[in-house]
Amino acid sequence: MNQIEIWFGLITRQSIRRGTFTSVNVLIARIRDYVAHWNRDAEPFTCTATTDEILAKVRWVQTSIKQLVENNTK
């Protein structure tokens, strides 16, 4: 999820906030132009996390949520 949030932050800062849009269609065109420009030099995503690291984070989140639920039911 973080990479998606980062990408939307980039498009917001680099394109959307810098412009003035007279209509929704103009805004959509600006976003499409930005995406087309972004994709010209696209590179495939490479996941650097190991399976064990991902599963450890999942277990940690599960444990944390379980503790929060238990604490809120007291």
TrEMBL record:
Organism name: Dactylosporangium siamense
Record's protein name: Transposase
Superkingdom of the source species: Bacteria
